[in-house]
Amino acid sequence: MPDPAISSEFTFELLVCRWAELDWPPDDAARGVDGESADAAPPVIVSRQLGTQKRRWDTIVIECDPEGLAARREFGDRTIDGDLLPLVRHAPAEWAYYRDALPDPGYPWRYVREAIHRGAARGLIEKRKNGRRIEIRRNRPYPDWVRRIVAIENKPDLDASAAAALSDQLEHDVETALADEVWLATGRTGERVEPALLREFPVEAGVLTMDFGDGGDRPRVDADAATVDWLPSTLEPQSDGERFDSAEKARRRRLIAERAYGKGWRSFTETTRPDCRWFDLERMGRGLVPVCGAKRRCQSEAECGSRCGSFEPEPPQWRTKGWPIEGGPGKGVRALLERRRERARDPPSKSS
Ligand code: SF4
């Protein structure tokens, strides 16, 4: 049995994502979020490793409007990308010439026509020809489903040099204010995070200490794994900023939310090798993390790829009759995580 100790930032990140799915927001009673109790906490979509061209966040939590999220689900499970979003948002209820209905894209209209064909093929909008003109209409209004966006930077081992490096990133996040809140999540190594390290960070950034220990030597994730060391300030994504005006911020936030919706955080099955015979999933409390039988530990996402020297394909007989999971364990792992991703989009998402 491989050792499931948290030996990589990747594993820590997955556990933070799982915890967020179980128990976001942290310490909500202390924060008095709109007077809501924990039971009334908004449904969340959790994703990892996404952001903008210049800044990629470890963990993203999208707090959703419950009715808006249900309406968003009607558009399907895939991300609605930056070319399709203007279509679904502005397509009219009645048939109209697309150039009359849509805002000027700021780039050639032929790209918009391509997006119309793509959007119609996905069932996001309808299109028809009226003479030489393409007309469009919506199938349903695109909902306002995002309440707040929260960015979390993960650092399991926080020391002075890591704190110094992270402070620049957090300053940047606070300055751009694309997210409503910015947090640092670190592992519990002793007591609370040292005040000297806390002082390294902008006061607007919150600090969470994650405790994935159960008193034994096996890490685990539970809903109460986090302690708030420092509460964050709410940033102002609706205001103009030095880097982006409010309209550009809103556009970027929609893109981030859509990418989080389509990607989730279990998408590591697309970037690692569940088809390797050594790939397995290990239960850690209410979370599952990948482990490597060859390395006998949790592997990192970077090492679990096509260049891994220990990679061995699943034996063909695993993929044929007799294996308890249809298609072999690699395919089974993918299917299992995909099912959990689906379930996580269906609030309430507190089950494991
Ligand atoms: S690809 Fe390498 S790291 Fe990934 S499971 Fe296989 S042996 Fe382990």
Automatic annotation (TrEMBL):
<feature type="region of interest" description="Disordered">
    <location>
        <begin position="305"/>
        <end position="352"/>
    </location>
</feature>
<dbReference type="InterPro" id="IPR043901">
    <property type="entry name" value="DUF5787"/>
</dbReference>
<dbReference type="Pfam" id="PF19100">
    <property type="entry name" value="DUF5787"/>
</dbReference>
<protein>
    <submittedName>
        <fullName>DUF5787 family protein</fullName>
    </submittedName>
</protein>
<feature type="compositionally biased region" description="Basic and acidic residues">
    <location>
        <begin position="336"/>
        <end position="352"/>
    </location>
</feature>
